[in-house]
Write a structure and sequence with these properties.
Elements: E1 3-7, H1 11-22, E2 26-31, E3 43-46, H2 48-56, H3 60-63, E4 68-70, E5 72-77, E6 82-87, E7 98-102, H4 103-116, E8 121-123, E9 127-132, E10 137-141, E11 146-149, E12 151-154, H5 161-166, E13 174-185, E14 198-203, E15 208-213, E16 219-226, H6 232-237, H7 240-251, H8 258-263, E17 269-276, E18 288-290, H9 293-296, H10 305-322, H11 330-359, H12 378-384
Parallel strand pairs: 1-2, 1-12, 2-8, 5-14, 12-18
Antiparallel strand pairs: 3-7, 4-7, 5-6, 9-10, 10-11, 13-16, 13-17, 14-15, 15-16
Helix pairs in contact: 1-4, 1-10, 2-10, 10-11
This protein binds flavin-adenine dinucleotide.
Flavin-adenine dinucleotide binds near residues 8, 33, 44, 157 and 158.
Length: about 400
Amino acid sequence: MAEIMVIGGGIAGTAAALGLHKAGFDVTVHEAHPDSGADGGAFLSLASNGMRALAELDAAAAVAELGFPLATMRVLDEAGAQLADVPLGEHDQVLTSYRCLRRAELAECLRRLVRDRGIPIRHGARLVGLTEGPSGVTATFADGSSATAELAVGADGLNSAVRGQLDPGAPGPEYAGQRVFYGYTADAPAPSEECADRITMVRGSGAAFGYAYSPAGEAYWFARVPGPPASAAELAGTGPAQWREQLLPLLRPDRTPTADIVAATTDRLMVTNAQHLPAGGNWRGTRTVLVGDAAHAASPATGQGASMALEDAVVLAKALRDALPDADARPAALERYERLRRPRAEQNMETSAKLTASRTTTTAAPRDSAHPAPRVDDGLLRLLDWHTPLPEDGPEA
Ligand SMILES: Cc1cc2nc3c(=O)[nH]c(=O)nc-3n(C[C@H](O)[C@H](O)[C@H](O)COP(=O)(O)OP(=O)(O)OC[C@H]3O[C@@H](n4cnc5c(N)ncnc54)[C@H](O)[C@@H]3O)c2cc1C
């Protein structure tokens, strides 16, 4: 059986492992983190296209048990006036509706599915070198170990070491112009409006803000604040109370619930710098291919990074499945994967960058950016459907 090593056991890597295993490959995942992985505690919204991809990997039911569903998105301006209230994706479908969940929970659930299907995950394996040869690709790890396989999948995120090995001169991630604050609180004032299954986006005067209430009444929120990046020392040395006091003055002038939610948040509050990759980077070698953030990390504004990673996993697995009996066809399969995925992934990078730029001033964003979520159209459904062959040329309209 052909062997594939996946570098990185986050969302993209575990999903790729599930897809490649389903396609009939012998897969091993090499993950840098020594145990199941630490996460700053951020949450994300997984869109219907991401849930569709999980369904094709037989993983949607397990993920649908995490977090809570989101059926609608409401948009408010700084005065609290409602600009839009729109249904989200496949809101009437249990397995493919949007979900709000913690990133660490999602990754851990996918790792459990990987282990349950008998796919080995080697923890504490941090890739430091990669060499492609005529009969295989060899990875070397920081602990001095090495592994060889027929193909390598680089799923090692924004600061990908695999990308650095493929293209040492490639530009790395850039600051996207916003700090992102995250928090959770069970003590926010009870919402005055209907909040079940709904995410509310606020175009505030000083920050773009989003919040959703879990069925247990816990508020999950984020704020994207334009300005210079937080330094490494600031990120390491600033506590939740100090971050809260930085954020509150930006929210208090608005007539929205945002300041009350943040004021009620005590210890579970964290900050990160939004980053993205420049588009147009190299995704492939002869035996190596990138997926997820390693290939096309977008700033977080569209909330599509994880869903794009899951789409990558399905398309890569289908492309290689169709080339399974013929080792000589593998480079063409990698090329096909890239041809089918790059336009959509780079479109998301561009949309997210524009949306981020529109928030880097305090000017209200145009109304047509209220609903950036890509549609799950027929072309995407066919692309993801496990039983439908991939199109020969570029993505379908
Ligand atoms: C602030 C913020 C908000 C976001 N909100 C959303 C959202 O609402 N919806 C959404 O869909 N997406 C969101 N995203 C994006 C989403 O989190 C990412 O797109 C997604 O996590 C990408 O998954 P990945 O597996 O490619 O990378 P990662 O999740 O970063 O996983 C990479 C894995 O590789 C491992 N690794 C790293 N280096 C090595 C190495 N050298 N060797 C071996 N292993 C290595 C890491 O330990 C990690 O486990 C957000 C991102 C941010 C930063």
